[in-house]
Write a structure and sequence with these properties.
By secondary structure, this protein is α/β, with parallel strands linked by helices. Helix content is 26%, strand content 20%. It has 13 helices and 15 strands. The strands form two sheets. The chain has a nine-stranded mixed beta sheet with strand order 14-13-12-11-7-10-9-8-15, with helices on one face. It has a six-stranded parallel beta sheet with strand order 3-2-1-4-5-6, with helices on both faces. α3 runs parallel beside α4 and α9 packs across α12. The chain is globular. It starts with 5 loop residues before the first strand and ends in a 51-residue tail after the last helix. The structure holds nicotinamide-adenine-dinucleotide (NAD). The site of nicotinamide-adenine-dinucleotide has 21 residues, from loops.
């Protein structure tokens, strides 16, 4: 029997909003039927790809459209909580871009709304589909480098001045800060590969470059994708920055993980090059990525020797599709999740734990570098999301034994059939990498 076509609505159709157009696969039974954005000029690519789809200027119309089964939420971070909760309340399956929200309360409200309504929630952590990340995870999970005790990520961002200091990203009230905004990806990757979540974080960070450069006028329109260029360097020669900049342009956090391992993440927005450079060091070796997508290598050392001569080099070839081929893969994962119930490798709980670490890392760096403890989540919420967004079936009350018939010999009461409630699992990413001390 032919499956029903799943109808999709997009909220935010320009910039990252174009990701939702990847989900328009009529031959596979998925159709984008409506999109919302703030002005008509944002719909050019949308109109080219889905000319028959409705174009609206009020996102509520997407959520209230009875034809729509699933919604992409690809609007700025400060809108995630409101839009995602409204979509979940309306019974739509939701693809929500990272970060899940800009506060811990906002993230928890989204998780609780998904739990209460039963509407499906999927988080757009596309780095979990990067070949470089998957290869490092494979190396760690194989035991090749022993038990991972520490992880570091150095994040160089050459395009920081183009992308993050000209629009809403530059203000705490809209993004909270760039440790959270960008680092939600990397903190999530480190949690995933190290098999545990942060329980305590301490941060340092500064705004040291972009606040000293010429600003644009408050009413001046800006399209960062039109300004974006490798020629924009060095930052001190650039202009046109946001009238309000109160986020740090370098961020550094240290994280104590629940399983005993420790990690650091450092991020700089005025570097000349762009790369996320991770290394994970275990009791038997070290793994590091050289390049994060496209043509890149994964180096592994399992014997002593110079950094220049790793024991193993995995060469990864470029793949087609944005973000090194990860975007088409994550869209396929979302579509399989909502249609077939196939578990994705992204996780709403993990997305919340990354945001909690980012929020409290920022709090620490802004309040005397004091370590902050990450608040835990309700076990039933964790169990729900780890159980593929299905509520555990409650144990049925034990049946009373039927009174034995007078003549027949008394039978033993049959044990009451009961479905065991799944034990609440500890908040841990998909797979434990290795046992910790
Ligand atoms: N996973 C990734 O690799 C990745 C990459 C880039 C951005 N993002 C995330 O995607 C989201 C969007 O980022 P962006 O850089 O495209 O932001 P953006 O400011 O360009 O906004 C995206 C779109 O939302 C629209 N929009 C804004 N307010 C709206 C409203 N009230 N109603 C309808 N549409 C509205 C904008 O006009 C724009 O078309 C953010 O949450 C960001 O963190 C993720």
């Amino acid at each position: 029997m032919k499956k029903k076509t799943i109808k999709i609505g997009l909220i935010g159709v320009y910039h990252r909003g174009q990701l939702g157009l990847e989900a328009h696969r009529p031959e596979e039974g998925f159709e984008v039927v409506i999109g919302a954005d703030v002005s008509k000029d944002k719909f050019k690519a949308f109109a080219e790809k889905v000319p028959k789809a409705k174009q609206v200027l009020d996102w509520h119309k997407v959520i209230n459209d009875p034809e729509v089964d699933a919604v992409f939420v690809t609007v700025p971070d400060f809108m995630h909580e409101e839009v995602a909760c409204a979509a979940l309340e309306a019974g739509k399956a939701v693809y929500l871009e990272k970060p899940i929200a800009i506060t811990i309360e906002g993230a928890d409200r989204i998780l609780r709304t998904a739990y209460r309504t039963g509407s499906k929630l999927f988080l757009g952590h596309n780095m979990r589909y990067f070949s470089s990340i998957l290869k490092m995870k494979e190396v760690i999970d194989s035991g090749m480098i022993g038990e991972v005790q520490c992880g570091w990520c150095r994040h160089f961002i050459s395009y920081g001045g183009d992308a993050y200091f000209r629009d809403w990203h530059s203000e705490q009230k809209y993004s909270n800060g760039l440790l959270l905004q960008k680092g939600a990806h990397d903190i999530d990757v480190m949690h995933w590969l190290m098999g545990s979540y942060t329980k305590r974080v301490v941060g340092m960070g500064m705004l040291s470059v972009y606040d000293k450069l010429p600003r644009r006028k408050p009413d001046e329109e800006v399209d960062v994708y039109k300004i974006w260029s490798d020629a924009n360097y060095p930052p001190v020669e650039l202009s046109g920055f946001s009238p309000v900049i109160d986020v740090e342009d370098h961020n550094m956090v240290m994280m104590q993980l629940e399983n005993g391992a420790q990690a650091t993440y450092v991020q700089c927005h005025y570097a000349p090059d762009a790369e996320r450079n991770y290394t994970f060091i275990g009791t038997r070796g070290r793994v590091e990525n050289i390049g994060d997508f496209g043509d890149c290598n994964i180096h592994v050392w399992t014997t002593r020797g110079p950094r220049a001569t790793p024991d193993i080099i995995y060469h990864l070839k470029p793949e087609t599709g944005s973000h090194g081929g990860a975007d088409p893969k994550i869209i396929s994962a979302f579509l399989e999740f909502i249609r077939d119930g196939k578990a994705p490798s992204t996780s709403p709980i993990a997305a919340r734990m990354a945001v909690a670490t980012g929020v409290l890392g920022h709090y620490s760096m802004r309040h005397g570098n004091v370590p902050q403890d990450i608040p835990s989540l309700e076990p039933e919420l964790i169990a729900y999301f780890e159980n593929g967004q299905k509520k555990a079936v409650k144990a049925a009350p034990a049946k009373k034994a039927a009174p034995a018939k007078k003549t027949a010999p008394a039978k033993k009461a049959a044990p009451a059939k009961a479905v065991k409630a799944a034990p609440a699992k500890k908040a841990a990413p998909v797979k434990k990498a290795a046992k910790r001390k």
